[in-house]
From TrEMBL:
<protein>
    <submittedName>
        <fullName>GNAT family acetyltransferase</fullName>
    </submittedName>
</protein>
<dbReference type="Pfam" id="PF00583">
    <property type="entry name" value="Acetyltransf_1"/>
</dbReference>
<feature type="domain" description="N-acetyltransferase">
    <location>
        <begin position="163"/>
        <end position="315"/>
    </location>
</feature>
<dbReference type="InterPro" id="IPR052564">
    <property type="entry name" value="N-acetyltrans/Recomb-assoc"/>
</dbReference>
<keyword id="KW-0808">Transferase</keyword>
<feature type="domain" description="N-acetyltransferase">
    <location>
        <begin position="5"/>
        <end position="159"/>
    </location>
</feature>
<dbReference type="InterPro" id="IPR000182">
    <property type="entry name" value="GNAT_dom"/>
</dbReference>
<dbReference type="Pfam" id="PF13673">
    <property type="entry name" value="Acetyltransf_10"/>
</dbReference>
<dbReference type="InterPro" id="IPR016181">
    <property type="entry name" value="Acyl_CoA_acyltransferase"/>
</dbReference>
<dbReference type="GO" id="GO:0016747">
    <property type="term" value="F:acyltransferase activity, transferring groups other than amino-acyl groups"/>
</dbReference>
């Protein structure tokens, strides 16, 4: 007789059962592939305390597999396509609970236009993820409470169309604003893009849009005359406002947009410049720019385009900028 598995969103009353599934799965199933020290570091007894999980599960609402009117598995699925916890009760493995959870995740991802799924997968779970179409990106060692554990970064592409780059046009603006709004990015208004379009028509700025298949994924602008005095004086064009929607990140879209801006910059200048913020939200951008050959211009930071001074205080926000340049030829 086939076991009937259904999947529904997490409810707060599920917390004790899910905490127990997490703990017992690791101790009774993953223990085949990891030492007792690694297992205890990964799932200590305190992980059985449901109250510790509730704040996370209030934010990331897990999907819960139900069989015989009880929770037998759960998965945490984030808007970026990241699958965090994915566990099935040891007594219900091989009965379809994992497949049901993964089916629900993929269906949700397609509805929300998420182009890929990715996860950090244990040695034990790797065969299951491979059967679901995931591929290994890299093997890695992670440190948990002082112990190193081997796992695999795996991903599955759901949309295989190539990235297409367009120039900004008026009819694209509603789609752009809607996409940012759905990503809780409310500052990207239609007024901003209409201003960009006007500047493009005046040949003051160029704007390119990236589409992943049929879906708007991000954009970049290139301003011929920067507001930053050093770039202005040396006629260095400035790449500004590079944005890739969270669910389309780590697909190379940012690099493709930068390629486009750099290719156009070389027509007028041997150098191109870019400014980057200093707080953690800019971390990925900082790494990307350094990898692509951008280096600090040697003039320190600015706040509202004015040089910062020793002993003065400045808010760490989007206006506190480190300026970088790249030699193009």
């Amino acid at each position: 007789m086939q076991t009937k598995i259904t999947v529904r969103p997490y409810q707060e009353v599920d917390a004790p059962a899910l905490a127990a599934i997490y703990y017992n799965t690791i101790h009774q199933v993953n223990s085949r592939d990891y030492s007792s020290e690694q297992i205890n570091a990964w799932a200590p007894e305190l992980s059985l305390q449901a109250e510790r999980w509730k704040p996370k599960w209030k934010s990331i609402i897990p999907l819960v597999a139900i069989c015989d009117e009880k929770a037998v598995g759960f998965a945490e699925f984030e808007p970026t396509g990241h699958i965090d916890c994915f566990y099935v009760h040891h007594s219900y493995q091989g009965q379809g609970a994992g497949k049901a959870l993964m089916f629900e995740i993929e269906d949700k991802a397609k509805q929300e236009q998420i182009p890929r799924l990715y996860a950090e997968v244990s040695i034990t779970a790797k065969p299951f993820f491979e059967k679901c179409g995931f591929v290994v990106v890299k093997q890695q060692q992670v440190l948990i409470r002082g112990y190193e554990l081997t796992n695999y970064r795996m991903e599955k592409r759901l949309i295989y169309d190539q990235v297409i780059i367009h120039e900004l046009k008026d009819e694209k603006i509603p789609d752009i604003v809607k996409a940012f709004k759905e990503s809780n990015w409310t500052l990207k208004s239609s007024l901003l893009f209409k201003q960009y379009l006007q500047e493009q028509q005046q040949q003051k700025r160029l704007i390119w849009l990236a589409y992943y298949g049929d879906y708007f994924a991000g954009y970049i602008t290139l301003k011929w005359q920067s507001n930053y005095p050093f770039f202005q004086e040396n006629k260095i064009p400035e790449i500004m406002d590079l944005n890739v929607l969270p669910k389309f990140r780590q697909l190379g879209i940012g690099s493709l947009l930068l390629n486009k801006a750099e290719e156009k910059s070389i027509i007028k200048s041997s150098y191109v410049g870019i400014g980057v913020g200093l707080y953690a939200d800019y971390g990925a951008a900082q790494q990307l720019y350094i990898k692509r050959g951008y280096i600090p211009d040697g003039r320190g930071t600015t706040f509202n385009y004015k040089a910062t001074l020793p002993g003065e205080s400045y808010p760490v926000d989007d206006d506190l900028i480190l300026w970088l340049t790249k030699k193009l030829r």
